[in-house]
């Protein structure tokens, strides 16, 4: 996101207009892109909690799995001088919006809730701009999962893969048995999700960090990156021809319904399985993607607060931030969405085996130094660099681009300002 510099001046000159706009007392307008089955169910719970506290919830849902449409809508609102009370923003984008001077300080809620002592440092640092909390963390998603239909696996005579040779063996067997081996939606962010997972599995956490977090030119163009693209190119052969443009949850539905055997996707996919009444370990399997069992790529959803003039809206923002971090919401939201709570003190009793594995693996990866931010999900690099990388990966996925050319193009994309 490279915001137009006129935002500052427009925001300043129209702030009075926005404060005079029709804002009801104790109302929050929340812009988000949680629109699939499991996600919508989760948002409904937050709405309930807010309304129980006497705050009216004004829903501003913008469909689009990775939030590109929501970001466009948010930019338009901020430029017009009428930002929503809160919006779903994450990672480096929080810093970018903070630099524009449009985010609200919610330290009061954080201090009262003892967020600094509750949250892992990797989470709290992401929620702050210049040392002050401006966003409330909702959850932690693990991105490097492989979702599997065990019935399809059984019919194909395949086993759960832990290495890339095992993965391609399973994919071959699934395809020969008449199923789609890999359910995928040919959208830029989905292609990038598979790409970064393959990079982690092929090169390990240190390689991933040098290439997709630190953007080291030598690593981006080196032999391990070429091997990453070679592996990604091989995966292409197991994706069906109808994949372009398919939404992620429709790809997940293919695994749920037994049309496809496997899907690379973050654990928000689990929300779709559970919303369909499926049980982990029985109706579906979650496994770390091949080669990534000892690493963890994370995506933290968060709600950032925007500067508003109405005192009631300001109070409602603190109420919203407090509600998001409440044990009640952390539990119910994450049970619905498939993610894990940001608070480590939430009881595990209601969480399934996939969530518990995610909690344990996150803790182990954090200790081992293999906990990495997701490039594909806005946690690792600026939105400008991310967008340029998306373009390279998408071109590779949907053309005859060579691995060497893709690696060179990726290094060039990393220099995007």
UniProtKB/TrEMBL annotation:
Keywords: Signal, Transport
UniProt cross-references to InterPro entries, sorted A to Z: Bact_solute-bd_prot1, SBP
Subcellular location: Periplasm
First and last residue of the signal peptide: 1-25
Main subcellular location of this protein, as a coarse class: periplasm
Highest taxon of the lineage: Bacteria
Family as reported in the entry's similarity comment: Belongs to the bacterial solute-binding protein 1 family.
Function: Part of a binding-protein-dependent transport system for a sugar.
Protein name: Probable sugar-binding periplasmic protein
């Amino acid at each position: 996101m490279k915001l137009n510099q006129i935002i500052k001046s427009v925001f300043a000159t129209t702030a009075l207009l926005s404060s005079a706009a029709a804002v009801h007392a104790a109302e929050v307008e929340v812009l988000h892109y949680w629109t699939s089955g499991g996600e919508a169910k989760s948002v409904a719970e937050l709405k309930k909690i807010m309304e129980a506290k006497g705050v009216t919830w004004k829903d501003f849902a913008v469909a689009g799995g990775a939030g590109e449409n929501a970001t466009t809508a948010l930019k338009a609102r901020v430029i017009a001088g009428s930002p929503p009370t809160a919006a779903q923003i994450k990672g480096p984008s929080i810093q970018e919006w903070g630099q524009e001077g449009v985010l609200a300080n919610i330290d009061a809620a954080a201090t009262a809730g003892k967020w600094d002592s509750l949250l892992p440092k990797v989470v709290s640092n992401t929620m702050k701009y210049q040392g002050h909390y401006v966003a409330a963390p909702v959850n932690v998603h693990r991105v490097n999962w492989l979702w599997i239909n065990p019935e399809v696996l059984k019919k194909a005579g395949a086993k759960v893969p832990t290495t890339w040779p095992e993965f391609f063996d399973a994919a071959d067997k699934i395809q020969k048995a008449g199923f789609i081996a890999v359910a995928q939606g040919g959208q830029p962010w989905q292609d990038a999700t598979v790409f970064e997972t393959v990079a982690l599995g092929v090169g390990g956490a240190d390689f991933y960090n040098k290439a997709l977090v630190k953007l080291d030119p030598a690593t981006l163009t080196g032999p391990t990156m070429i091997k990453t693209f070679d592996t990604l190119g091989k995966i292409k052969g197991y994706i069906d021809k109808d994949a372009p443009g398919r939404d992620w949850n429709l790809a997940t539905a293919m695994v749920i319904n037994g049309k496809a055997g496997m899907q690379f996707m973050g654990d928000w996919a689990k929300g779709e399985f559970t919303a369909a009444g499926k049980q982990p370990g029985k109706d579906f399997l979650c496994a770390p993607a091949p080669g990534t069992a000892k690493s963890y790529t994370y995506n933290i959803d968060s709600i950032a607060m925007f500067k508003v003039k109405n005192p009631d809206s300001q109070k409602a923002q603190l109420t919203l931030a407090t509600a998001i971090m409440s044990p009640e919401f952390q539990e119910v939201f994450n049970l619905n969405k498939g993610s894990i709570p940001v608070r480590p003190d939430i009881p595990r009793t209601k969480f399934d085996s996939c969530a518990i594995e995610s909690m344990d693996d996150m803790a182990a990866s954090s200790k081992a130094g293999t906990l990495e931010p997701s490039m594909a999900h806005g946690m690792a690099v600026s939105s400008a660099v991310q967008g340029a990388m998306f373009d390279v990966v998408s071109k590779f996925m949907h053309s005859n681009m060579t691995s060497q050319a893709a690696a060179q193009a990726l290094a060039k994309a990393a220099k995007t300002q």
